[in-house]
Amino acid sequence: MFEKIDEKVKNLAVVIFLLECIGAIIGGIVVWKTADDYGFLLFLAIAGGGFIAAWINSLIVYAIGEAAEGTKYVRPLCEPEPKQESKETNSKTAPATNTHKPDASSMTLVCPKCGTKNDVARVFCIKCGERLS
Ligand SMILES: [Zn+2]
Predict the structure, then answer these.
(1) How far is the CA of 63 from the centre of ligand 1 (A)?
(2) What pLDDT, on the 0 to 100 scale, is given for residue 99?
């Protein structure tokens, strides 16, 4: 449900913008028709103000979408143990997982894929997610 949340939020920004513009125009027309004097000026004020408010709102929502997109690239670094079990079955070209060896200190494991030193307790590489044991 929350896959590609950034795309959904960005689409939501467009929808919010359109809905608020339509709402502002409709509201402006209603005031225009009901007001005796300066009806058209009220229409311009409401429609114009609504347009600006809609633009600002959609910008905020779009910014949230941008932030969600940003965290998508940061997340792998924050989650050192991604679920990659299914990947192993068809990784014939990948280096064998038993080529890793304990570091000189024997407290770290060198990732067979990217060479990053990982804590021995880790199952997956903190950098690339390769299985270490
Ligand atoms: Zn690695």
Answers:
(1) 32
(2) 53
